[in-house]
Design brief:
The complex is a heterodimer of chains A (280) and B (230). Chain A is an alpha+beta fold. Chain A has two domains: 132 residues, no CATH class; 102 residues, no CATH class. Helix content of chain A is 56%, strand content 12%. Chain B is an all-alpha fold. Chain B has eleven helices and no strands. The relative contact order of chain B is 0.08. The model of chain B has no long low-confidence stretch (mean pLDDT 87). The chains are: A alpha+beta (280), B mainly alpha (230). At the A-B interface, helix 3, helix 7, helix 8, strand 1 and strand 2 of A face helix 2, helix 3, helix 4 and helix 6 of B.
């Protein structure tokens, strides 16, 4: 019982926190693109989870959990961890944040102080926990195991495209059309992107497909094609302007898309302007 | 990110790599490098520019696992596993690429070979529109012509590359099969680079390092020459 108690504490005390934080995880996967960027600009899931990991309530919680390895008086620590979990849940779902925030901060401070004092022991017991976890995995005991091969394939097929998981879908199909992206000035002359900007045409293409996937999600609802093109054009323009090498000495920047088609052995090219902006 | 933060990360990574080379606390060092690499690549990809850097991070976590198991007395030979575990990750990456093709366009991936010409034109035009060098546009047209002029040869080459990807588990079966299969995969990457002006260093470099292991081959050749001379 004593050996499994820390794990029981972990599972039981984590419930209210996970329940409270679940809606943030769901928000990420069902996000509206603009709202997501307003909340967490330029962050992807690993960074998002990092912030949640170091969220004060959870940080105090992890400290309490590790402390449970270092003292024989585990029940007081377990009570603190569980109470903190419920406190975080109550505060975040409550409109009244006055006195509760103070008491919440005090709990975090007490636990963090104890964690710092016991820092060396905590590191040692974290090692113990990791070693126990490894020894609990019998499938890793053989020399030539295929655990990494199988688990990475399964996880990559189940999870979305977030680091370090990917299905590597590059050139997995050959459609009868291809899009390229280029910049023109106000007179229609092609301007090499690297003359003024760090991103290349391929980077514009990656962002284009990323945005198209977002805008054409079923949960995104109906969005007209012209609105999508306009929004994508603005995003491509902003990517370029945010990564300037030198200020463009142009009167106008046109972000254009070319669609190249192959039909019955004949090539055709159709070019449209996604976004046009005068340069200040 | 702020310049001091960048400098701090660069210095930290340098220190970690020195510890890695000196084999000091490698399990922890490689795990930290894995975490750092995931977040650094995430920052880059959060602007929508997918770098396909997963294998670079996987290599570190695979080695971290090999060293961690060694410290608890599990999983046999460390010298073998610190190579074989990353090779598992590489085999998984190539297998996933093959699975993606099966999901997206099963048999059509081979039958649609003529449309590969569009992807070639696109790749070279990306370089043309980025650098302004018109020879790149011309090169793309020339290579696209080769593809459309030889559709059956193209289908054979595409089928061969698909087989290479789906059978990449061979990388995990031993040192010599890994070298031979690595050379085949390298030839595939060279072909892709020639026809499409595309090179995936984040996949190719780890594969060359661990599968082909050129330094090991050079060492073997030098040792054989020394024996001959002696």
């Amino acid at each position: 019982m004593k050996r499994v108690l820390p794990y029981v504490i972990l599972l039981f005390a984590l419930v209210p926190i996970v329940f409270n934080q679940y809606h943030w995880i769901s928000f990420y996967f069902e996000r509206d693109l603009e709202a997501y960027r307003a909340w967490f600009p330029n962050l992807y899931l690993p960074l998002f989870l990092l912030i949640k990991f170091f969220y004060p309530g959870i940080l105090g919680y992890w400290s309490a959990w590790l402390l449970s390895f270092t003292t024989s008086k585990r029940w007081p620590v377990a009570v603190i961890a569980i109470a903190q979990g419920f406190l975080v849940y109550y505060i975040e779902s409550s409109q009244d944040r006055g006195l509760m925030w103070v008491s919440y901060d005090l709990v975090v401070l007490l636990v963090l102080t104890a964690a710092i004092i016991k820092g060396r022991d905590i590191y040692y017991y974290a090692q113990v926990a990791w070693t126990r976890l490894l020894r609990m995995a019998p499938w890793l005991s053989r020399g030539y195991t295929y655990f990494i091969f199988c688990s990475y394939i399964v996880l990559s097929l189940l999870l979305p495209e977030v680091q370090p998981f990917s299905r590597y879908p590059m050139y997995s199909q050959f459609p009868d059309n291809a899009e390229t992206f280029l910049i023109r000035d106000g007179h229609g002359h092609m301007i090499p992107t690297h003359r003024y900007f760090a991103p290349g045409a391929a980077d514009l293409s990656h962002l284009y497909y990323h945005l198209m996937a977002d805008y054409t999600r079923p949960s995104a609802g109906f969005i007209s094609q012209s609105s999508i093109d306009s929004a994508v054009g603005i995003a491509l323009y902003r990517l370029l302007m945010a990564n300037q090498k030198v200020h463009p000495d142009l009167d106008t920047i046109c972000v254009n898309m070319q669609v190249i088609r192959l039909s019955k052995g004949q090539y055709s090219i159709n070019e449209t302007t996604l976004y046009k902006q005068s340069v200040e | 990110m702020l310049l001091p933060v960048r400098i701090a990360i660069a210095v930290g990574l340098f220190v970690l790599l020195v510890l890695y080379v000196l084999e000091i606390r490698v399990a922890l060092v490689t795990f930290i490098i894995f975490i750092l690499s995931v977040f650094i690549f995430s920052i880059g990809e959060s602007n929508g520019v997918m770098g396909r850097n997963g294998l670079m991070s996987l290599t570190w976590i695979a080695q971290s696992l090999a060293y961690s198991l060694h410290t608890v007395g599990r999983a046999g030979d460390l010298r073998r596993n610190r190579f074989q575990f990353p090779l598992q990750a590489m085999a998984a990456v190539y297998t996933l690429a093959a699975i993606s093709k099966l999901i997206a366009s099963p048999i059509h991936w081979i039958s649609d070979a003529p449309y590969l010409a569009l992807q070639i034109i696109k790749s070279f035009d990306f370089a043309y529109y980025t650098t302004g060098d018109p020879s790149l546009h011309t090169a793309g047209i020339d290579r696209a012509y080769l593809i459309t002029a030889h559709p059956y040869l193209t289908r054979i080459l595409l089928a061969a590359s698909f087989l290479l990807e789906i059978c990449s588990f061979v990388l995990m079966t031993g040192r010599r099969p890994a070298i031979v299969y690595g050379l085949l995969l390298l030839s595939m990457h060279i072909g892709i680079s020639y026809f499409m002006d595309i090179f995936f260093p984040n996949i190719s470099v780890p594969m060359i390092t661990f599968a082909i292991n050129p330094l090991y081959i050079i060492y073997i050749l030098v040792a054989a020459l020394r024996r001959e001379v002696a």
